[in-house]
């Protein structure tokens, strides 16, 4: 661990939070002289303080230890690079448009890997010119159901959460740009249908 890099990162993050050394020290129940030593590279935080320091500064412990954040390359906000995550414990759905480290219910989440639809996950897409009416012939039991669907274009994501004991059908606006549909089955994973308009049948 490079104490100089760690100290520089702590200094930067503390300034971003608008905190003085004393304010940070008080939250950690240590002296401001200790914080000063860290920021001058004359020592590193004790491991027992890393959890609190991470929470106060809003940065993962691993990043503090590395002494750098390593931001992602800018991707111009292209939502077609979207990644989906679902917590298997609580069903929380999250997305990112680039590399991300996400966790929920104490577990690190891995991005869902989209696959081509099989015969058990076919969709029926109807349109009246303004909306898509999408239906899946899929069971909606508590242990096996469609959890969410998302319509994705280059600049937006429209996400619909579905629940057990409901019908696996929903409507989505028909967007001007070419779009892809993602559907997540709690048992078999994430499926992708692209481009969606080729599946649509006019009502």
Automatic annotation (TrEMBL):
Top-rank lineage group of the source organism: Bacteria
SMART domains: HTH_XRE
InterPro entries: Cro/C1-type_HTH, Desulfoferrodoxin_Fe-bd_dom_sf, Lambda_DNA-bd_dom_sf
A family per Pfam: HTH_3
Listed CDD domains: HTH_XRE
PROSITE patterns, sorted: HTH_CROC1 (PS50943)
Domain named HTH cro/C1-type: residues: 10-64
GO molecular function terms listed in the Swiss-Prot or TrEMBL record: DNA binding; iron ion binding; oxidoreductase activity
Listed SUPFAM superfamilies: lambda repressor-like DNA-binding domains, Superoxide reductase-like
Keywords, ordered alphabetically: DNA-binding
PANTHER family the record matches: HTH-TYPE TRANSCRIPTIONAL REGULATOR XRE, TRACRIPTIONAL REGULATORY PROTEIN-RELATED-RELATED
Protein name in the entry: XRE family transcriptional regulator
Origin species: Paenibacillus montaniterrae
């Amino acid at each position: 661990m490079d104490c100089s890099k760690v100290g520089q990162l702590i200094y930067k993050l503390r300034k971003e939070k608008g905190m003085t050394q004393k304010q940070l020290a008080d939250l950690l129940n240590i002296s401001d002289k200790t914080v000063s030593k860290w920021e001058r590279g004359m020592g590193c935080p004790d491991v027992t303080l890393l959890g609190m320091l991470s929470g106060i500064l809003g940065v993962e412990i691993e990043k503090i230890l590395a002494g750098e954040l390593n931001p992602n390359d800018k991707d111009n906000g292209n939502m077609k690079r979207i990644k989906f995550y679902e917590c298997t414990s609580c069903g929380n759905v999250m997305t990112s448009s680039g590399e991300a480290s996400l966790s929920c219910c104490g577990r690190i989440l891995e991005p869902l890997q989209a696959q081509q639809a099989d015969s058990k996950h076919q969709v029926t897409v109807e349109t009246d010119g303004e909306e898509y009416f999408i239906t899946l012939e899929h069971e909606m039991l508590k242990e096996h159901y469609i959890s969410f669907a998302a319509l994705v274009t280059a600049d937006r994501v429209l996400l619909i959460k579905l629940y057990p004991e409901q019908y696996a059908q929903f409507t989505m606006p028909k967007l001007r740009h070419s779009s892809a549909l993602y559907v997540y089955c709690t048992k078999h994973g994430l499926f992708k249908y692209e481009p969606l308009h080729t599946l649509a049948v006019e009502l």
